[in-house]
Amino acid sequence: MKTLVKIFTAAALVAVSIFAMASEGPGSKSAKANVNLSTADFALEHYVAVTTQGESAGVEQLFAEDFSQKVQSANAQSHSRSALIKSLKKQKGESLNCTVKTDIIEESTDYMVAKVTMKFENFSKTDLVTLVREGDSWKVSSSVNSYK
């Protein structure tokens, strides 16, 4: 009889656990991916991964709230933080077929300006990126793109 009670108790616990996990659903995790943005170099490295390799983890925490992007061309464009994040999330897992070169133009304790050059087969894209320290982490505050 004791064995039967133990079996029913175990079965009930398993059933409750399964229902609890099912009610959460696969996409209901509220915790955001935590990315190390403790240095300007880490933040710049993550920015390159997000923009060229389709990395999507921590994309929201990478960009400053007042982020703006400008694209210099015959038809100049501007993009907000939310528009860029939405676009980058759509590119999740897609890697660009280019070589990437990163140069630090200027760096201090609170900001960094870097030049990211992406060379494709028929053209190149230059991205001037400004990173700023906000508290304990670094964020991308602006980006200016040009094409050759």
Annotate the secondary structure layout:
Elements: H1 2-24, H2 40-52, H3 59-62, E1 63-72, E2 77-80, H4 81-90, E3 99-107, E4 111-119, E5 124-134, E6 137-147
Parallel strand pairs: 1-6
Antiparallel strand pairs: 1-2, 3-4, 4-5, 5-6
Describe the protein in words.
A six-stranded mixed β-sheet has the order 2-1-6-5-4-3. It has 148 residues and is an alpha+beta fold. The protein is globular and about 40 Å long. Strand 5 and strand 6 form a beta hairpin. It is 34% helix and 36% strand.
Short description:
Helix content is 34%, strand content 36%. The chain has 148 residues and is an alpha+beta fold. Strand 4 and strand 5 form a beta hairpin.
- The number of distinct helices, counting runs of at least 4 residues, comes to 4
**Overall outline:** globular
Structural class category:
alpha+beta
Strand order of the largest sheet: 2-1-6-5-4-3
Strand runs, count = 6
Q: State the share of residues found in helices, binned by percent.
A: 25-40%
Low-confidence stretches: 8-17, 19-31
Whole-number average pLDDT?
81
What portion of the residues fall into strands of 2 or more residues?
Answer: 35-45%
**Element pattern in H and E:** HHHEEHEEEE
Rg over C-alpha atoms, rounded to the nearest angstrom:
22 Å
**Describe the biggest sheet?**
6 strands, mixed
Characteristic terms for this protein:
single chain, 148 residues, alpha+beta, 4 helices
